[in-house]
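Anyone? Bumping this.
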Amino acid sequence: MMTFMPWRRRGESSLHEGPLSEWSRGRDAIVVDVPWADRLSCRLRELGLLPGVRLRVLRTGSRLVIQIGEARLALRRVDAAAIRVAAADPATI
Amino acid sequence: MQLTRPSRETSAVALIGNPNTGKTTLFNALTGLSQRVGNYPGVTVERKTGSVELPDGAQIELLDLPGTYSLSATSPDEMIAVDVLLDEEQETRLDAVIAIVDAGNLRRNLYLVSQLLEADLPVVIALNMTDVATARGIRIDAIRLSSHLGVPVIPMVAQRRQGIDELRVALADVLCGPPQQPSTATLPDDLQRQVIRLLEWAKTDGGRPLARLEALRALVDDDGVIQDRLVNHHGQQITSKLADLRNAVGVSAPLSAIESEARYAWVQQILDGSVQQTDELRSSRSDKVDRVLTHRLAGLLIFVSISAMLFQGIYSWSAPLMDVIEGFFGALGGAVAAMLPEGALRSMIVDGIIAGVGGVLIFLPQIALLFLLISILEDCGYMARAALLMDRLLGNLGLSGRSFIPLLSSFACAVPGVMAARTISDQRDRFVTILVAPLMSCSARLPVYVLFIAAFIPDRTVLGGWIGLQGLTLLAMYSVGAVIAVPVALLLRLTLLRGTSSPFLLELPAYNWPTPRTVFLRVYGSCRAFIVRAGSVILAATIVMWALAYYPRSEEIHQDFDDQRSAVTVLPAPDRKAAIQQLDRAEAAAHLEASLLGQAGHFVQPVFEPMGWDWRIGMATLASFPAREIIISALGTIYSLGGDHDEDSGDMRRGLKNATHADGTPVFTVPVALSVMIFFALCAQCMSTLAVIQRETASWGWAAFSFTYMTLLAYAGAFGVYRLGLWLGW
């Protein structure tokens, strides 16, 4: 469940786990879950976006840029909402 | 070439790899100028081949496949790789595959390799960009990697031509050597069993044996392209057969998820012990650049400035070269005219070919500059960023950033633009992109704009001297198609091609300096195509146009003017010369009016009247149906034959300015010039584009639709601009 938090600017959430679309820039995350059904997630899996993989958000806004390995991928915020990630380094929480 | 060597049949080798792995650079390094661009049979897809000489003297045919991440094809573009591997194209029976992988991103690149190793073809791995990987602290033991994979791995830096010879040697070895024993990913046994069941079914009940690769893709990619194709071959029964087999695998997750996990597990095994790299994500210099270039405000501003610079640059930088070519054709026309006796032959060469085709070739510098700038932007990696910025805008139109590159390429030429739409996986997205792509102002329109702007738009600066009025008009002409494309795309999305916009996913490659060789080959290729076009379609149309405008040659008119000429011989010398010149012009004009073209022109005149055109512009426009540039050559021929051409300088601009109606008023005013430019900005006068639309959509209906809607738009636009211009008193 997403809660509406007007006092908190988009991308600055400090969730331990949440949708990729809400992840803040520069903070490393570990992929928890990528949906199965649609073609986009199929392709994302083929590109290596699998549970357990580390990623970083490089651009926030309506179009995200994420880094997996050495690759930078651009995708829409709405599509990123279905991908769940968790903080990579528990110490930073 | 060693002629003594017994010739053997040339082997065919395909080059395959992820996008942005330096595939084009490697292809160019291996083949050089021997490359040829053709089409795949059936689908029109640019098919780039070239020959490579191996160390043992054998020649092989290298085939460049479009970049792909996986053999699970989602777009027509990715399907090509699968088809070539499956030998669907009967012409290309492959003997081996070169898989190019990015050493800096091995994990993802090996995913495709794991699929390739199952295709029963010898594979050589070109481990490219090892310099970048080393700089990033990635240590790759190529020998270990090779023994893990069971196929040769050749480290290389294609951009600096390192490792190219080693790759040639390895290729020669696998072509003659014993069969390879590659390592393959362990897909779950249950899945393998169902693949075998499908293969057996296809052989017995299906009527057509399948390749293993095909069977696997049909099973895993639910509703994928291969499944569609099997339905075409075997009928609907295969859909339920596939569903049964998928159920029989007995897993809850979709097979595609099972496949990707199995393959990445295999990749991990391969990398263990052969590659040392940290799991830490490291920032690169490109990330810093992207903070600015993909910034939602600064990035957009930069994008707009780059576009403005592009158009202003094309206009102003090519001027000196154009003057040189123009001078050359002027001198050539004069020289030929002096050498040949007066008559039909001289007229055909001077008025037809030199005035016509020469008039088109003048624009070669601009074509070269346009392609130069676009290929530099593409090669350095900026285009992907522009696509990212444009996705928001295109998303509102029901398209995605994926459509950006096809649309932008269409500013050079709609033919590659329409073909580039193959990278779009959603069919309706793709069709909308194809239908609006020809609205983007292609390089064939450039000559039309440049000619009319130079002749009729005053050369002064506006906006406080920041930009020239001529450059601004050019920018406006370039924008008009793109602006009109917005409502057209929206309307198509709401009516004929209803649907929601497809998801957007794009890799942003690291920035790098453009490879001069890649840029050069691209510019060279397009200039060649332009010259060939000028020498074929445009030449033919020009000669037909000339003949229609020249014949029938009425003796009566000639006699009549001869009588008048003898009448003026009584005048004193200076007046006589002027009077004879005037009579010569009048005779030429009378001949033109009486010609077949003139008669037809008067007949269709009412159609063009509302746009302010005289019959000559109308006929030249009709003649330019095969290609827009023909209007230049047609006008050149018409005004040259009609005596308006300024023969001293061979300058067509002056010819247009001097053209008058029968009553002495000028044919071209600013509203007329703008009306012609708008018409050409919006019309679909290009046979090649219509043909490529037909082939890409597999329907004449869409080609006819494109032609109709664009012609109506062009007519309405030209009419509107003409009336507006008159009303404003331009």
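Late reply, but here is one note on the structure posted above: Chain B touches chain A through 42 residues (CB under 8 Å).
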